[in-house]
Amino acid sequence: MIDHRIVQESPADQLLREYRPDASFFFSSPERTILAKGVFAAVSEAEGCNQMENLAQRAVSVLKDAEQSGRQNPIIVGAVPFDETKPVQLTVPNEVWCAGPLMLEQDVQIHPGPGPVYDIEPIPQPGEYIRGVEKGLARIAAGDVSKIVLSRSLRYTSPVSIDISRVLCNLAQHNAGGYTFAVDLSRQAAASESAGRKRRTLIGASPELLVSRNGLHVYANPLAGSRPRSDDPAEDRRRAAELLSSSKDRHEHAVVIEAVAAGLKPFCKTLDVPREPSLISTETMWHLSTEIKGVLTDASISSLELAAALQPTPAVCGTPTDAARAAIKEIEPFDRGFFTGMVGWCDSAGDGEWVVTIRCAEAEERALQLFAGAGIVAGSRPEDELAETSAKFRTMLIAMGLNNE
């Protein structure tokens, strides 16, 4: 049996360099870096259709089994899909290495040189996406929903194998301060071999923390309302100021904040929700941001339980949630998979970090399927929402060695 190891002194950049696609999990945040290998046990599927039901309790059961087998402070790692009827990918690894946050030099390339050449298939085509946004606006006008998040996908295929390790390193280098992740989905792929599915890896760099827990302290950082960055400093500042003053975007942001606060409130004895949003930026986007902090009523409430209570937020689904989910299934011509789900970790003490699975792709040997979405509210312009998704694709495209869609 492989010993379960947590090596706190491992350099974070070493963990990134040692990542390979057959590793079960890689995760870096402003707080820590985690590399996990192998699978000791997996969280079981729920008996009913809703795979989110009793998810935290099923995870606790697996962690207790791991502790009884002699593993010290085992952790759950992995991802949860957007569709609550689809199986989760959560496992207890055989080996875990931990380190502090990644500190990469921006001008030092870990994998220099050009990447592969790709063929591109938009799903749906841009014109069809615009028509989908128009359908979403019609639902809003009819009063069925007040917000709906509609996404599209780009499938990139290459004649040669894609170096996932290289893409992950590039994501980490270009998204300092965010959350870079890679999750091996091969257990699900193995279950789908009859359908011709190959090994898959969920990979990305999310700017959005769904929730974290450290002891009794809870932290969430919802994002909603976006603008693409500009290479021109003056124009970039103008876009940031316009976003911060936009009544449409501030309303969209407020809807998300209200939902996250309502989701956390039953678990917290105190909850601090700022009255005004602030701005944060990534290499490609400006976002409206609110930092929510709370103190739990009970130490038995795990980070996974908190995350499951929040997923999905209106930032990635819409509101009301059930109506928005139903409309998304009707309008979007593809399965989101793990896009707009959540990815992260939870240890046996309940501490952990869970991020919203955005700015991501599902990778196979010679293909990467990218995802990006935009929040649609009354007053949204379909052409603007298409442009927003194009800007959001750039996080993955830059990591792939591409700068344009």
UniProtKB/TrEMBL annotation:
Pfam families, per database record: Chorismate_bind
UniProt catalytic activity: chorismate = isochorismate
Gene Ontology terms, MF aspect: isochorismate synthase activity
Domain Chorismate-utilising enzyme C-terminal: 128-392
Residue ranges with Basic and acidic residues bias: 228-245
EC category: isomerase
GO biological process: salicylic acid biosynthetic process
Listed EC numbers: 5.4.4.2
Family: Belongs to the isochorismate synthase family.
Protein name in the entry: isochorismate synthase
Species assigned in the record: Bacillus glycinifermentans
